[in-house]
């Protein structure tokens, strides 16, 4: 399953940025909700753990999820849960980074050995193993962005971001529904340039509803790591404009994209 390898490669790319940081370096605050680099790694580790349980230990997943369900139902924040979960296991600093790395390697191997079409449990509806691997890739890539940014590094993407483009396409309707808006009848035409230079197109050709530009920047918008105004995307048409203003390729409640100029490389 290619998504298993893509998840591993993206995780290893992020590991190369953080594995040499000491506790002070991991405490640097990113532009994402005041999270530190350590908070980001802890978050990725916890939900990799959840995905691993859903793959190999369904009962264990339900035990893990039991205290989370009421928080999600009430619309509360999971930050206190995550802090407590990590503290209970003594995970912090470089030890947390190593534990995260050990698990994402094991999880990627289990993804690769699993039936891609098998169904696994999650916080929302069940999903396929392929979708679970893609979701872990997407979250690693998205949360990795604030780490690249705070370290002042430009990420060198590969065509594995095509997985995130597809998530963006598949969540066109969700991006409207989660904000309580009617779903437009037709998705705008996408014409995106991949890191390799290939051109990826989606949707029916159109001159009046179209989004064109770097695939990386489309991924940044649908994962809400950039405001569309801070990208080079050409957005034409009212539906395309409305989509890019609220695009959200991840589950959960409605989230607001970052304001223009608030997310970018730290100088």
Keywords for this structure?
267 residues; alpha+beta; 12 helices; 6 strands
How would you portray this structure in words?
The chain is built from twelve helices and six strands. The chain has 267 residues and is α+β, with helices and mostly antiparallel strands. A four-stranded mixed beta sheet has the order 4-3-5-6. A two-stranded antiparallel ribbon has the order 1-2. Helix 3 (37-56) crosses helix 6 (79-88). The chain is globular.
Q: How is the main sheet built?
A: 4 strands, mixed
Total strand segments: 6
Mean pLDDT: 96
Helix content: 40-55%
- Counted by DSSP, the helix tally is 12
Structural class: alpha+beta
What is the terminal separation in angstroms? 38 Å
- Shape annotation: globular
Strand order of the largest sheet: 4-3-5-6
* Portion in beta strands: 5-15%
Radius of gyration: 18 Å
Give the ordered list of helices and strands.
HHHHHHHEEHHHEEEHEH
Quick take:
It is built from 12 helices and 6 strands. The chain has helices spanning 2-18, 23-26, 37-56, 58-65, 69-74, 79-88, 93-113, 129-150, 162-170, 172-177, 215-222, 238-246, and strands at residues 119-120, 127-128, 189-193, 199-202, 210-214, 234-236.
Task: Set out the fold topology.
Layout: H1 2-18, H2 23-26, H3 37-56, H4 58-65, H5 69-74, H6 79-88, H7 93-113, E1 119-120, E2 127-128, H8 129-150, H9 162-170, H10 172-177, E3 189-193, E4 199-202, E5 210-214, H11 215-222, E6 234-236, H12 238-246
Parallel strand pairs: 3-5
Antiparallel strand pairs: 1-2, 3-4, 5-6
